[in-house]
Structures are given as structure tokens and as C-alpha cells.
Amino acid sequence: MLGRAWDTPALPGERTAAGGDQDSLTLGIEAAFACLERAGTDDIDAIFFATTTPPYAEKHAAATIAAVLDRRDVGTVDVTGSLRAATTALRNALDAVRAGSARAALVVAADMRPAEPSTAMEQLFGDGAAAVLVRPDAPVRVLGEASVAEEFTGPWRRTGDPFVRTFDAKIETEQYQRAVVEVSQRALDRAGVSPDAIAAFAAYAPDPRTYASVAKRIGIAQARDPLFAGAGNLGAAHALASLAGALDEAAPGDHVLLAAGAEGADALVLAAAEGVQRARAARTLNDALADKRMLASYERYVRARRLIEWDDPVVPSSTIRTWRDRRQAFALYGVRCGACELVQFPANRACIACGGDRMTPQRLQRTGAVFTYTLDHLVAGEYLETPVPRMVVDLDGGGRVFVEGTDCEPSDVTVGMRVELCFRLMHEGADFKNYYWKARPER
Question: Which run of H or of E encompasses 130?
Fold first, then answer.
């Protein structure tokens, strides 16, 4: 589709494109939920968020992740500005757990890098997110790690630049390879592991050819990365997403080399221990790549990425109101009546069923079924040819919410359809990002 739109040669494979109501933060929250649900715990002491495309130039994104996860007693860190942000965040998380300042740390990486239309980067860049939980009893051990720093400009994006810039692809590739080979050899030496013992190479690389070349230079004979064909270059999230794919297939005793390069490089040598197969995600990387909806046209892609300017509707918003309602709007809290046990949302002072006033906070579940719905063509004063589904959803465990539908065609929506709530970007009224929940078909 991208090649056809500009009448240029098309690169092989597919590219992931986030929806118009998503950004790096909402992608990261999606990965965080999946990680913690698989781990069976939300007992974490620190959250690290790694991205080159944070939602704000000045505002903490990791704090929003903590609010949505309903974790206030955590340390939060944003790691930005580098394509090796995820490996840097992971090394910091490991240090925090080893030092005892955190019992468990969540590392979330997400990116939506902007690429100039009609360029090779537009066909290379994909959107994605991944998350890992760091704790002492994890079924993956760190045997060795290393970092190098080197000043080099390329690729880069200044504040205000609409797209990623490059200088000379060949020079940038040579610089990347030199740093990653050097740091990988250091990490392998510290771990006491030879390159031919590496079962999987999980790394950020600018393109599949460079990935294969650097693996060969390190001495890894068999290296493959399904992300380039199925998703594209995921930026800061690529290394952790690639690691997830490697661990999907790892057996106890297997070694994995994790690396990322930009202005230097990071590398970690990991070993799968007993329990790695039990900890494996029920939904693998291949499952995630297969669970997709194809964009009908390049025009939809352009609109979702806001590559053309149009006047947004003026939506009244208030930072004070957002702060006041943060527990129900972010962590999804309602109330339960102490007399009749009815769960209600939003929170009321008195029960809508029996009139009782003994209300206790109740965190709602994120899955349920459509009770009823409408298809609205008129949205924020603008008439849309494709209507927006608006659903009343009965949540599992109690509570009824009114939300927009997303990630589906209007014709897909039916009464009784199973859905799950997902955290999305609603609008930017009052010049700040307003997030809330939407419903999508249950995966």
C-alpha cells in the first residue's frame, strides 16, 4: 500500500500502524497490562517507560502508567531520546532490584516514530510496544552486561521536527555495527559465553540486512528477527519485542543476546532457567503479529498519523477536573453499595437502586458484553461518513459503562458481543492530552 501510494518500489512484508486514538503511552499501557496479567501480579515498586516519542516534552509519562495500573507507591522513570532507551531502562531496573530499592520493576517500551511520506523510512517504521517484569525470582537470569557511549548524530529528531532525519545511511549503519559488535563481545566475555552458544539474538537494528550483518560479525550463525517482515522497525520498543519472540521459543539453558545501538550501545547476555516455559505468554509474539486488521487505504493511514492538517473540534477540558476524577477515569474505579451490593459507575454518593449511602470503592474489570449501542455519524459537530460506535457495556463482576468503540468496523458491533476496555487518546482539548477508556472486540 505504501509503495503503491507513491508509485515507488515497495519493501517486502507488513508494517504495524497504531490507530488514530493511540500514542506511545497507550501502546505502552497495553503492553504493561499484558505483562502483569501474565505474571499474575501488579505488586511492583518501579516503572520505567522507554520511548523516543513521549506524549509530552515536559510531563512524566510513567506516572500516567502508574495511575492506570492503580499503583501510587512506585518510583517512576522516563527514559527517552535514544533508540536504546529500552535496554538502558532495563539495565537501570536490574540495578534497582539488585540493590534492593525495588522488589519488582516494570520496564515498558513503546514507540511511534514519525517518518516522512514517500521515503524508505515510511516503509520501514512500525508502531509497537513491549514490557518485561524484573524481579529476583524471574525464570531468566542475566549473566553479563555492558554499555558503551559514543557521540554520533544520526538518525535524529529535534524538538519541533515533524520527521526523523538521517545524514548518510551507510555511515550510520557502520557506526551502529561497530558499537553493537564491541559491546556484545564485552558482554559475552563478562558472561563467559561464546558466540556460538547463543540461541537467539534479540536486537534493535535499523533494517533486516544490518541485523543479519551484525549478528554474523558477532559470531552468531543462526539469527532471525520476524519483526522486520511482520511489523517493521519498532524503534525503542524493538529490542524488547524481539526478546519476547526469543523467549517464546527458549528452553531452559538457552542463551539470548539482547542488544541495542544508538549513540553507543547496550548488550545483555541472558540465560533461560527452569520455569521459562511456564512463564511463557499464552499469547506469543506470532499470535500478536497475526492478530491484526488491515488498513483499507493509504488515506486512512494519513488521517490516523495526522500527516495532513485539519481543524480539530474545540472540546472543553480541565486539568483540575482530570486530576479530581483520576481514580475513576484512569484506574477505572466505581463504587459498590454496602446494602444491595450493586456496582455502579461513575461513583455515586447514593445507590441508584436502593438509595443506600454506604458506598465503597470498587475497581472494575476491563472485560464485559455490549448491552446496547448506537452508531453516531455526528461527532463533535462534524458529520462522518463512517459512524462511531458508542456502547453501553455490562462489565464482568458488575458495573455498566458508556464508552466509544474502537478497533472494529461499525458493522461488527452487536448486542451481547464480548469486548474489552482499552486506554486510548480521546482528544487534546485545552492543549493537553485527554485519555479515557474505549471498548474493542475481545481478543
Answer: strand 128-134
* Nearest of 109, 4, 2 to residue 47 by alpha carbon: 109
Q: What is the pLDDT of residues 317-356, one digit of tens each?
A: 999 999 999 999 999 999 999 999 999 999 999 999 999 9
What pLDDT, on a 0 to 100 scale, did the predictor assign at position 433?
A: 96
| 334/347 Cα distance (integer angstroms) | 5
What residue has cell string 480521546? 426
Contact 334, 345 (CB under 8 A): yes
- Residue by residue, DSSP assigns 51-114 as ESS-S-SSS-HHHHHHHHTT--SSEEEEEESSTTHHHHHHHHHHHHHHHTS-S-EEEEEEE---
- Per the CB < 8 A criterion, the answer to whether 369 and 403 are in contact is no
Question: Over the stretch 264-291, which tens digit does the pLDDT of each residue have?
Answer: 999 999 999 988 887 776 788 999 999 8
- Per-residue pLDDT, averaged over 420-429, amounts to 96
How much of the chain exceeds pLDDT 70, in percent? 99
Separate counts of helices (H) and strands (E) for the chain: 13, 16
Phi, psi of 182 (to 5 degrees): -60, -50
3-state secondary structure of 208: helix
- CA distances, 58 to each of 66, 82, 364 (Å): 17, 16, 31
pTM: 0.95
Residue bearing cell 553479563: 144
d(CA 35, CA 7): 40
* Residue 101: per-residue pLDDT: 96
d(CA 13, CA 16): 10
The b/e string for 171-210 (b: 16+ C-beta within 10 A; e otherwise) is ebbebbbbbbbbbbbbbbeebebebebbbbbbbbbbbbeb
Q: Cell digits for 250?
A: 527458549
pLDDT digits (tens, 9 = 90+) for 231-266: 999 999 999 999 999 999 999 999 999 999 999 999
C-alpha Rg value of the chain to the nearest Å? 23
H-helix or E-strand spanning residue 104: none
CATH architecture of the region 2-304: 3-Layer(aba) Sandwich (3.40)
Domain residue ranges of the chain, discontinuous segments joined by +: 2-304, 319-441
- Longest distance between any two alpha carbons in the chain, whole Å: 72
Cα distance from N-terminal residue to C-terminal residue, the chain: 26
**Kind of pairing, strands 105-111 and 46-51?**
parallel
Distance of CA 64 to the CA centre of its chain: 13
Nearest Cα to 275, choosing from 137, 139, 134? 139
